[in-house]
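Consortium newsletter contribution from the modelling node. Members have asked for a concrete example of what our holo predictions look like. Here is one, prepared for the 2-acetamido-2-deoxy-beta-D-glucopyranose complex that several groups have been discussing at recent meetings.
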Amino acid sequence: MADKQPHLNGAYYGPAIPPAEQPRYRPHRERSCCCCLFGILWKILVALIVLVGLAVLIFWLVVQPRYFKFYVTEADLTQFDYYSNNNTLHYNMVLNFTARNPNKKLSIYYDKVEALAFYEDVRFANYSVITPMNSFRQYKKSSSTMSAVLSGQQVLPLDNDLVSELNQDKIGGVYEIYVKLYFRIRFRLGDVKTRRFKPKVKCDAKVPLRTMGNVTLFQTTKCDVDY
Ligand SMILES: *[C@@H]1O[C@H](CO)[C@@H](O)[C@H](O)[C@H]1NC(C)=O
Ligand SMILES: *[C@@H]1O[C@H](CO)[C@@H](O)[C@H](O)[C@H]1NC(C)=O
Ligand SMILES: *[C@@H]1O[C@H](CO)[C@@H](O)[C@H](O)[C@H]1NC(C)=O
Ligand SMILES: *[C@@H]1O[C@H](CO)[C@@H](O)[C@H](O)[C@H]1NC(C)=O
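And here is the predicted structure:
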């Protein structure tokens, strides 16, 4: 019998499937087609995620967004006297700052800048920093100056340790003033402006008291910019 020697001619493909049995295979074929559709969708999804990731990476590398850099450049302190009889601090100080935009592609809008001044942990003054305009645009790779005039008197119930530290600083002629600044900024790339960011800046400045007829040199102090 021919079908018992399949290896002789190599052309034996088994018995033909009877027509009645064919419907049994159809559901199976539909399911595998469904699976392969999901497979394609999955691959498209993964490819999209990779593309978006790549686009973000390239954007980041091209734009290289960074915050500004911030320095205290000048400090002119003419009074910092604490009177224990009425617990009052009389102070008079001008601080000048420089903000530098290191970005090659982004400008920065400074919408609002607020400064608080502390001696040790005691806040003695807050002031809205005077910027050239109320809200101004700083172009890429440029610097702007801002200054804060801190002047007035403040009732501060300081403890004895702090009073003796203040007296020591008075003898040394240099006060350690800690300034905290609150920013509201936006970035601009081309015509697109971002949402508001609120970085905080902390400056530890050693401020010399200006004595009569002598201008003491203030050392430019770099501040920490927190995101
Ligand atoms: C506190 O006392 C000092 C000296 O005793 C005085 O010069 C200063 O004006 C007083 N400050 C206030 C706010 O009264
Ligand atoms: C601080 O800045 C103001 C305004 O730019 C300027 O008039 C003043 O001389 C500066 N102060 C010091 C101590 O450099
Ligand atoms: C300082 O801050 C206090 C509370 O945060 C506020 O009441 C006061 O008006 C501020 N002073 C100035 C000069 O901004
Ligand atoms: C000003 O200060 C410098 C350095 O502290 C000092 O050498 C100089 O004698 C002072 N000049 C006057 C007029 O006090």
